[in-house]
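A quick aside before the break. I want you to see a complete sequence-to-structure record at least once, exactly as it would be stored in a machine-readable document. Don't worry about memorizing anything.
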Amino acid sequence: MLGDMDLHKSQVTPLIDTGAAARMLAVSPDTVRRWAKNGKISAVALPSGRFRFRRADIEALLLPTMPSAPSASSPLSSSPASGADKSSFDEPLPELEGMAG
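That is the input. The structure line, written in tokens, reads:
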């Protein structure tokens, strides 16, 4: 019987709270809660209404994704709305050129 209990303990995944998940992801706890409620990240809802997260799930969100195949399901994925690359932000807007200085 003791052996069964030891086996069960080794299968239990430690959970982290919303604040710890938010610090790992560099976002606010409210953002983490919103993602959990919307199903964007896996969470365990406690009877109290609070969330807990598996550390491995949060760490998986931090892994870099392939630039050619962004994951739409990742809450951390981002793509430029206009399709512009970073170099286009280095040039001044024509309508603002006369206003500098």
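Two observations worth writing down. The radius of gyration is 21 Å. The chain is about 35% helix and 10% strand. We'll return to this after the break.
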